[in-house]
Amino acid sequence: MITGDFPATALASARAAGISTTGGVVTGADLAKAADVPVEARIFARIMPGQKLALVQAFRQAGHVTAMTGDGINDAPALAAADIGIAMGRRGTDVAREAADLILLDDRFASIVRGIALGRRIFANLRRAMTYITAVHIPVAGWR
């Protein structure tokens, strides 16, 4: 979790979201002093826009799949660099919406969870349909 909020706020949000807080919080000041980006950390707070982009790039280089949410101009580079950038549609800026891959119309994080569940269901149904079509048509093609 990468946020511009204060460390205490970040910890409370992480706990509410079910993110492990045992590693503590890495702040933007800590990150500025570090030689390498600590990709093993879970919570980053008081992060500057350039640091957001550096973190997303470091996580991607480490082989992680990244998702970035944001609503401001300062989030746009990280939104564009993430595997999937998710912008807030109501309160988000035009720049953030254009940089993102997905725009939340209602600005609620619960919509992300519902969207992922729906997407997985659609994917499973498509897979079943393709399996059925293949199973039916290959024997028919071989019969002729």
Give a summary of the structure in a few sentences:
The protein has 6 helices and 5 strands. By secondary structure, the protein is α/β, with parallel strands linked by helices.
Describe the protein in words.
There is one protein chain. The chain is of the alpha/beta class and 144 residues long. It folds into 2 domains: 7-107, 3-Layer(aba) Sandwich (Rossmann fold), CATH 3.40.50.1000; 108-144. Helix content is 53%, strand content 12%. It has helices at residues 7-17, 28-33, 49-61, 76-81, 94-99, 109-143, and strands spanning 25-27, 43-45, 67-70, 84-88, 102-104. The strands form 2 sheets. The chain has a 3-stranded parallel sheet with strand order 3-4-5. Strand 1, helix 2 and strand 2 (43-45) form a beta-alpha-beta unit. The radius of gyration is 20 Å and the shape is elongated. 23% of the residues are buried. The model has no long low-confidence stretch (mean pLDDT 92).
Secondary structure layout plus pairing:
Elements: H1 7-17, E1 25-27, H2 28-33, E2 43-45, H3 49-61, E3 67-70, H4 76-81, E4 84-88, H5 94-99, E5 102-104, H6 109-143
Parallel strand pairs: 1-2, 3-4, 4-5
